[in-house]
Amino acid sequence: MSQRVFKLALTGLAAGVMVSANADGVALPAYQSSSDWFTAGSEKVVEKADLSRETQRAKNVILFVGDGMGISTLTAARILQGQLAGGDGEENLLSFEAFPYSALVKTYNTNQQTPDSAGTMTAMMSGVKNKAGMINISSEGLRADCASSKGNELNTFLDLMEITGRSTGVVSTARITHATPAATYSRVPERNWESDDGLTEEAKSGGCKDIADQLVSYSYGDGVDVILGGGRRHFLPSEEGGKRQDGRDLTTEWLQRYEDSGEQAVYLQSGTELDGQDLSSTDKLMGLFTSSHMSYDADRAASGSDEPTIAEMTESAIQVLEKNDKGFFLMVESGRIDHAHHAGNAYNALHDAVAFSDAVQAAVDAVDLDETLILVTADHSHVFTIAGYPTKGNPILGKVVTNDGSGAPEEAAAQAGDGMPYTTLGYTNGLGYADLGDETDADARYASAADAGRKDLSAVDVEAPGYHQETLVPMGSETHAGEDISLHAVGAGSWLVQGNIEQNTLFHIMTRAAVVSSGK
């Protein structure tokens, strides 16, 4: 079998020195391409290669990441979506669960059994696993240490797509500088360096740049073409309500970058503006719709906040990117699934997962799958459980109601050993119980202390938006979990998604399907 070899015209792309590139191959720094993680991931994809199928190349690649969307979240969201449509729910499938190819993915970081998003997204985007908290810095670096990051920067799949002339886009319901979206375009030893106010003096004197600055000054290709999400505060100076201490307005700098390019660059701040924008004549699009993270989908709908949905952002991004005949790469993150889980609020986590499924379907409807690879995955799981023998069709957000299978029509609310009812959904650790009624913002839970342990839920509406599930172990925030997550694929090159893989293998699936980092 003919294998592809990585071309290594090494002058250090990640170190900031451009290298020659062509449609068949792109140079990567030696410490990245010779990493054991990198070579093992490449070999794994080669093992699955079927050259008879490789006439179908992916002109476009869309990577969807449901942050914190573990298997239990998928199951519960699938049931909720089915029940919202009037069914029992169990037979339902989320849009991407019907994709023809799937795999299980191992998520650990090099220093943690249970990972964080910086390390997991670095693995997906660079082909190299690393430590928690660091974005596209190899494990040779130290977290929050600017000096140690020098010479250990990793290049990303987005970099490779830009260098080979494709268009690129990043969409997120979180801050666009948050760990997952940031890992598509930036290199920092500390995920919290979202703007210069977070940089240490050592980092400033050592020449490390914050994440927002790196996005606006991104130098590969012609820059990131579409940027849609939250986090406006990290682009604006403090005197204008932002976080920046350097006095810079990065939104203005981004627009100025394209003034003499002949391309139309547009900056937006609301869903209404996005809906009214003529995308057919838009070449560069930045939309920062909130100061921090965007609203939970249920909160956005209830409050009437002028923010686009994740599906609307996805559709808009594709309309801008697909005008490039060479193709495009788009990463879409549903970041707030993770945040609702951290708050111990299944209501918002599941509703955001349903909205995420709608965004995937919008992409499927918008592209030609003969030339587009769509991947849907998570970065990690959460300690979120479905338990208690509820009867089929029981409201997934509700209290457990059982049927003993005897044929008797009576069903009864189940009681635990303490004589009190309990919910189907729960968390192993976290803040624990809270009843905030119709309050949809899960983050409001952080206003009070952890309240772990059992509560009498007899008179509590556990299906209300503001209900936060009970937990066993009290913690200031519910934690990630370490089990495998799923990967779903459809379109050009999707057959490469099989079996149980390391997370860094996703990079090699994308590069092989799109033919950007390897040649015959």
From TrEMBL:
Textual note on the cofactor: Binds 2 Zn(2+) ions. Binds 1 Mg(2+) ion.
Binding site for Mg(2+): D67, H178, T180, E333
Cross-referenced Gene3D superfamilies: Alkaline Phosphatase, subunit A
Family according to the record: Belongs to the alkaline phosphatase family.
Signal peptide: 1-23
UniProt protein name: Alkaline phosphatase
Active site, renumbered: S117
Cofactor entry: Zn(2+); Mg(2+)
Alphabetic keyword roster: Magnesium, Metal-binding, Phosphoprotein, Signal, Zinc
Residues reported to bind Zn(2+): D67, D338, H342, D379, H380, H480
Naturally occurring in which organism (per UniProt): Alcanivorax nanhaiticus
